[in-house]
Amino acid sequence: MYKIGLIVNPIAGMGGRVGLKGTDGREILQKAKSLGAISLSPKRTSAALEPLSVIQGKLKLMTCPGDMGENEMISCGFVSDIINGIKSKETTFADTQKAARIIRDRGVDLLLFAGGDGTARDIYIAIGTTLPVIGIPTGVKIHSAVFASSPSKAGELSLLYLQKKIHQLREAEVMDIDEQAFRNGIIKARLFGYLKIPYERRHIQGGKLGSSPSEEIIHKAIAEDIVESMDNDFFYIIGPGTTTRAIMQRLGLGYTLLGVDVVYKKEVIGLDLGESELLKLINRGKAKLIITPIGGQGYIFGRGNQPLSPQVIRKVKRDNIIIIATYNKIVSLKGAPLLVDTGDLSLDRELNGYMQIVTNYHERTAYRVKF
Amino acid sequence: MGMNMKTKLRNYHAVCWDEPIIYELDRNGERAIIVPEVDKKIIESVGDGISSIPKSMRRKNLPQLPALSQPQVLRHYLHLSQENLGVDLNIDIGQGTCTMKYSPKINEQFANSEKITEMHPYQDESTSQGLLEIMYKTEQLFKEISGLDRFSLHPGGGAHGIYTISSIIQAYHKSRGEEGKRNEIITTIFSHPADAAAPRVKGYKIIIIYPDENGCPDIEALKKVVSEHTAALLITNPEDTGIYNSKIAEFTKIVHNFGGLCGYDQANANGLLGITRAKEANFDLSFFNLHKTFSSPHGCGGPGSGIVGVTNKLAKFLPVPVVSYDKGNNKYFLDYNSSDSIGKVKDFYGVIPVILKAYAWTMSLGAEGLREVSNVAVLNNNYTMKKILELRGVSMAFPEHKHRIEQVRYSWEKLAKETGINTENIQRRIFDFGTHYWTSHEPWLIPDPFTIEPSESYSKDDIDEFIAILGQIVKEAYEDPKKLKNAPYKSSVHHIDHDVFDDPSKWAITWRAYKKKYNGYFQPK
């Protein structure tokens, strides 16, 4: 039997149709409803479940009552166990988090969740990387890499994973933006963490690589390149992300996945440092800065790495910035340039132009940077 | 092919023999051929042949080869061949970047003649003058085709040609005392992947340039990355998009100004014969795939040959021997006279059957014929492009380039958005009509790509039939996408699980590994 859990955020996507850019917060939800918003999640979740009908007899399903999954299961003709302790109407993020924990603890092969970035955040908070998940995109904000590119792709990917036609898992970014800022026209996405998703080259977000090696192998190759060229005279400021993490793993050092760490003579001298701590270190000697762009967006500064302030970047100097990325990430930009938004326009101008990205062992890609 | 009948689609079905691996067909005790015992007198005279091998090197056990009778062996390989969709079986224009054109069978007869197959590379030059003359004259033809000054016929394929070019580049900079300093090779993302991969084997760092908004390699990016560390630029032109980089002479000038060399990847020169040459764009080195442009089956269909040409200043670094001509004695000879040679890149002197076929093909066409080959290839391609772009849901990369050389990289992005059918669904469905297409080199910068190259070999009817197949599949995508998702229905193999390519624990390159990892017919242990 294949065991699947399903959690639906029934209000995800409601704000989008009425121009509210998200539905985080009870007030906004009420406003959306008063403007005539209807939930898109049921229909889109059903589209994701449809590809699984070919293994219906072998499926053991577990979901939440009412709007959070049960209704979609019924509409698709699936029979499922309904977990206890979750409301069936007027649910909140706390219900999502609770349901994720219950489903994880009861044991499933895969958790499907329908929603947007906010829902992905809740799933991340609840279960982290303890269970493979696939996001069904139904929300307004879809910046996280944990979502399939369409609901039906989410279903197809689930099917492949359950049937063991794909085996690999990868950690994909959970991003969320500040909805208040978003409503004011400012997009500021932040990296919250990672969820573990099935990895199939042909279903990844924003593009694909064909028969190239897995991301993990490329991460290792990039890390090897960086470590090989490390200079003991420099502090190495390591930005957040799984690509940069591979460097710390290669060196056998501890690290923070979402924070900024510093290495000197191949030893850690600071983890999760803030701007002032970084500036103190840089004032003691020369530094290089290793960063990776955010997948699908291309920001190298100004998103998810706030300690790397304009002062820190200026002190390091442009020539000492090392950008690393797999081709997955570059392809996911669909030809768009890397972006900088440091908060200092003159610095953004200085960073504008071409920079080299380390894309493999002894391989660089010349790529445009814009502000 | 001869089907068309105004693009009537075939009721095709591939052969499926469900053929086991030959080791699994082992029938203990059966034999194809019983080799007679060696006559005692011979053993007495020259020994048994085994005792001269040191004991430590002799096998202790017999090799574990499958035992089969001759008809079983014959059946096995015929079954496998029938499950192939080879160049002589289908309209092969979907193999963009290296479509196998028609290879005249008379050239195969030349290559299979005893006059060639019974020759030995160690026989005396005086007894191989005819072949040496062909090799010498092949070089003269390619000097004319490329404008370069000397060629090595040694490399056994395209990537091998680029490897040889990389070795020559390294030897050149070493001769100038710059080997350590010049450690970077610049290439482009739409050049053939071997332009990055082969020099990497030589220890070079690779710098890749992306296209600009117009689809040509970004010349501004080149200006930013070229430096005193640049060993060379290795570039394909036209790139895999089929777009000809008209600024190519500027590219070579920029690199030369920094002391780097320029190598031209002409693996696919199908649209350029008699029209442009490496020399006029100031390239220092180039290579041609004889097995592609110059008509010879390749890939699993036959051996390759990636001959390398250079300008005079680099000729001394070519592999030895080259074939030279002694006019005074009217004699061709293997010329080892080069103290700066990079040495051997392959055993002996080149892939003789392929060289012979390329020579015969080129001589049968002559200069005007070669030019016509390119003209027809370009015409065919632009006709194909116009017809394909009329299909619903299809587009091409960088559409502002309305004219393409020998191939086009198309995209099903729109169709995928509208129907959920992607290029791989189509790639599988097209097998049901008795043909195939290739998607793209990686990475896939163009969403849901496919690459079509009709070459000069295929008629308008062939092209129309191929496009009609695509048209049928597009119709199905919009009307019955589920049908496409489960395709193919009539192919020898349904669906290959690509995921295992990333998983070394599932690789079974040898029979021993297969036995270790699988139970029976690819059932994982």
Describe the fold and architecture.
- The complex is a heterodimer of chains A (371) and B (525).
- Chain A is an alpha/beta fold and 371 residues long.
- Chain A has 14 helices and 16 strands.
- Chain A has 2 domains: 197 residues, Rossmann fold, CATH 3.40.50; 156 residues.
- Chain A is elongated, with a radius of gyration of 22 Å.
- In chain A, 54% of the residues are buried.
- Chain B is an alpha/beta fold and 525 residues long.
- Among the domains of chain B are: 253 residues, Aspartate Aminotransferase, domain 2; 29 residues, no CATH class.
- In chain B, the strands form 4 sheets. A 7-stranded mixed sheet of chain B has the order 1-7-6-5-4-2-3, with helices on both faces. Chain B has a 3-stranded antiparallel sheet with strand order 10-11-12, covered by helices on one side.
- Chains A and B meet through helix 13, strand 15 and strand 16 of A and strand 3 and helix 8 of B.
- Strand 16 of chain A pairs parallel with strand 3 of chain B, so a sheet runs across the interface.
Q: Would you report the number of β strands of chain B?
A: 14
> Ranges of chain A with pLDDT <50 over ≥5 residues?
203-212
Structural class of chain A: alpha/beta
Question: What is the overall number of helices of chain B?
Answer: 16
Structural class of chain B: alpha/beta
CATH topology-level fold name of the domain at 111-363 in chain B: Aspartate Aminotransferase, domain 2
The shape of chain A, in one word, is: elongated
- Helix run count of chain A: 14
Tell me about the largest β-sheet of chain B: 7 strands, mixed
Output mean pLDDT of chain B.
Answer: 92
Strand order of the largest sheet of chain A: 10-9-8-11-13-15-16-14-12
CATH architecture of the largest domain in chain A: 3-Layer(aba) Sandwich
Rounded radius of gyration of chain B (Å): 26 Å
Distance between the termini of chain B: 44 Å
